Amino acid sequence: MSDRGHLKKTAHLAEVPASWEAGPRGARPRRLLSTRTIVVYGTLFVAAAYYLLPLYVMIVTSLKGMPEIRLGNIFAPPLEITFEPWVKAWSSACTGLNCDGLSRGFWNSVMITVPSTIISIAIASINGYALSNWRFKGADIFFTILIVGAFIPYQVMLYPIVIVLREIGLYGSLSGLVIVHTIFGMPILTLLFRNYFAGLPEELFKAARVDGAGFWGIYFKIMVPMSLPIFVVAMILQVTGIWNDFLFGVVFTRPEYYPMTVQLNNIVNSVQGVKEYNVNMAATILTGAVPLLVYFVSGRLFVRGIAAGAVKG
Amino acid sequence: MTSVSVKDLRLSFGQVTVLDQLNLDIQEGEFLVLLGSSGCGKSTLLNCIAGLLDITDGQIFINGRNVTWDEPKDRGIGMVFQSYALYPQMTVEKNLSFGLKVAKMPKGEIDKRVARAAEILQIGPLLKRKPSELSGGQRQRVAIGRALVRDVDVFLFDEPLSNLDAKLRSELRVEIKRLHQSLKNTMIYVTHDQIEALTLADRIAIMKGGVIQQLADPNTIYNAPRNMFVAGFIGSPSMNFLKGEIALGAGGRPVFVTEGVSFSLDGYNAGEVLAPGRKVVLGVRPEHVKVDEPAGASGEVHKAVVDIEEPMGADNLLWLKHAGHTMAVRTAGSRRFSPGTTVRLSFDMTLASLFDAETEERI
Predict the structure, then answer these.
(1) By the CB < 8 Å criterion, does A203 face chain B?
(2) pLDDT of A61 over the 80 cut
(3) Could you give the ipTM of this predicted complex?
């Protein structure tokens, strides 16, 4: 059989005109410098530069001393690298009343972000699980109300929440702010988890029910282990969102509990004395470092989870 | 003894009623197949029996116990799903033992049951693997094992072989049958594949639009379908349907007439009187027509022209033009016919079916 196939092939080749043999063969060649590649790489380069330039300016400025900054050339690399502005921004810059730098705000932000993230994700994931798998009566109405809540502007709710917090005695405290962040994260996180859980095969849920697992058993033993990507997405959304929050931080807490963002604002906008641009830049980078770090560490999972949540519904 | 019993079951989603007044009794140790095309309510019925869907009205009994309000785990059932539904983060062993651990069974007993299931299904070497490291056939074995370890009386299969390729499907089909023969459990098996239904079932329930059309053993379903839907659903290619009417033939005996051609009905076992002039449909299976062979009991021979020939290896399927109809006829694979030739057909009326043209019910 194979012999016959071989014979046939050679016979076929013999009939081929010589010009075919000399013609194209193998992978198609690609030109390195075509209009297309120039346009694509050019556009990408411009976009990247547009985004990276401010970061560059911030970093070089934060490493310069004040005399060098006064020369006015903001793009020039530092002649003499100094970490003095970073130290000052962290530990001794003045924010209104006290002069202990951003460190106080950093720890405040940690104490706000960590519990808010954990509590909101825990509640929202259970919400999403209940909404997608246990179709209780009124589930749709409940879900609609929750989503509508996401579209009401924060500013509208500021004052009512102030009153509520005051009445329950939590106004101005860290736990009050944690509660507010937990509540405001609920709609979008619930939507995220609901869509993710709805995308998991329904038969898994059924199989677990036949196996005798109950509401919590299925949640902890079946659903959670399968949902790492969406938990990472939720964590990134919450950590960056809460860390970057300014409005709630300034409205609902007292000065000694101000989160890092509010303190940064106070440092940068301080009207006393000289404007210390290098300290301001260092303080800004320090404040942005946490969300940046979160993105770098878990960026890949983030993209995967967002895509999964977006497609399946 | 009755193993599973469904009484006056009704299931509605809002205004839509999916199942209505459904009754079904399944004997102990019986292999019952629920057969139908998608959307006929067969999987829905299975989910109701499993307790995964709350029914609107009626009752469900398993082993003489009213389980209508019971949770799935308390019904004494094991279930196998189409998509295997193995827990992806657990090893095969953990998949098998999950339900037993939830039930807080002692570890020794769990190990014993897992070992037994692994031996029956020959998945012992796979116990430490994750489901993603298994082939489709192995996954479905594990899924069956998960039902097996529960040591239940009733197995529910929801299209367990539909995700497998043809070769594996026929292999696992045989294994499920062997499993049933050795375990002698009651099994309820949902499928849309008529081959699976005919090969596995003790009895088949053919469903359409939420209603059981016929509940009988495979032989009866195949040879004496109760209506035209069942007749057309079972058999591949489908039964040939010829529309015509009853007339009186030689000797005053009723004959079937279509397009001026008459068919003797000698040998057909009609359940009622065949009044002349009644509009009827004659159903003949492709394998019940003889081509160029000595005529049957009636001695009647029809002429037909070969239109298309489809050789299928074991069989040779002919599409014939006969009296204005196109008719499928199955012959032995060794026989060849060229298109355009005229052949002689003879029909065996003992194996044919006659339906009322109005009600589509068997006469």
Answers:
(1) yes
(2) yes
(3) 0.85
